Amino acid sequence: MSAKTPQGIPRQHWHCIWPQLFTARRKFNHLSRETENLPFIEYLARLLEKADEQAGEEDSDEDEIEDGDHVPSDGEEDDESCDEQSNVRRFMIGMKGEDDNLASRDQVDLVASFCEESVEANEREKRKPVALLDERTDPKNDLSIHVPEDEQHDAARRIVFITDLDSSSIEALVTTVALTPAPALQDLFYKHLASTASIGATIKSSGFQTFTFDFHIPYYVLRESKKSRRDIRQKPNGEPLRQFWELPSLSMPTSNRPTSTTDERYCLYEAVTSIGVTGNDHWTWTAYGFVDTYFDSRESVDGYHQEKRRPLGRPDPLANGQIDADEPLWDPREYFLKVVEIRTGLAFMEWTQILNKMEAKVKQSRTNLCVALSSNDPKASQEGIKLIRWNLHMTNFLRILGMKLSDTIAAWDSFRGNGIDYFNDYSVIPIETAFGKLKAHLQKLEALERELLEDNPDGLNVYLGLESIEALNSQQNSAKQVQIINIITTIIQFPLAVVAANLFSTTGVLQFTPTLPKLIFVFFSLGILILVALLALSNWRSWLHQMVEYNQKAITYYHERLEGKDASIIPPKVLKRAMFARRSREAALPEESDPEKGVKKD
Question: What is the value of pTM for the model shown?
Answer without folding.
Answer: 0.71
